[in-house]
């Protein structure tokens, strides 16, 4: 429920300290967004000023991490954003090899959009490369 990291045993105390510092840095950093015009494509709306995301007229409740992922995909639309780039931007540079984090959060975003509007999938996967925002009017 809101966890965005885990460490498997055995782990080094240096790794633990690095991850604690990364969490502290993310917690103190200003969240992405908060300025700019809204982004709209088909049934998808990203209101940067209000920090809100909509599927049609339905607001999508996102965690801070999910919001960060969609923010970076939206800002780079229609280009593919590499896994390592997303991991560095959302979790921090120490996480660039943790692609499982990305897969789990992308799956959660997809599920939330599908619940709000069946058939709406905001993210395309480019196997072995990354993800792209891909919502268009039918």
Describe this structure in words.
The structure is a single chain. The chain is an alpha+beta fold. It has a domain of 73 residues: Winged helix-like DNA-binding domain superfamily/Winged helix DNA-binding domain (Arc Repressor Mutant, subunit A, Orthogonal Bundle), CATH 1.10.10. It has four helices and seven strands. The strands form two sheets. The protein has a four-stranded antiparallel beta sheet, covered by helices on one side. A hairpin with a 4-residue loop joins strand 2 and strand 3. The mean pLDDT is 82.
How far apart lie the N and C ends?
A: 34 Å
CATH architecture of one domain: Orthogonal Bundle
The parts where pLDDT drops under 50 for at least 5 residues are none
- The ordered string of helix (H) and strand (E) elements is HEEEEHEHHEE
Shape: elongated
Q: Kindly report the spatial arrangement of strands forming the biggest sheet.
A: 1-2-3-4
Mean of all residue-level pLDDT scores: 82
Question: Which CATH C-level class of one domain is it?
Answer: Mainly Alpha
CATH homologous superfamily title of one domain: Winged helix-like DNA-binding domain superfamily/Winged helix DNA-binding domain
**Main pleated sheet:** 4 strands, antiparallel
User: What fold name stands as the CATH topology of one domain?
Assistant: Arc Repressor Mutant, subunit A
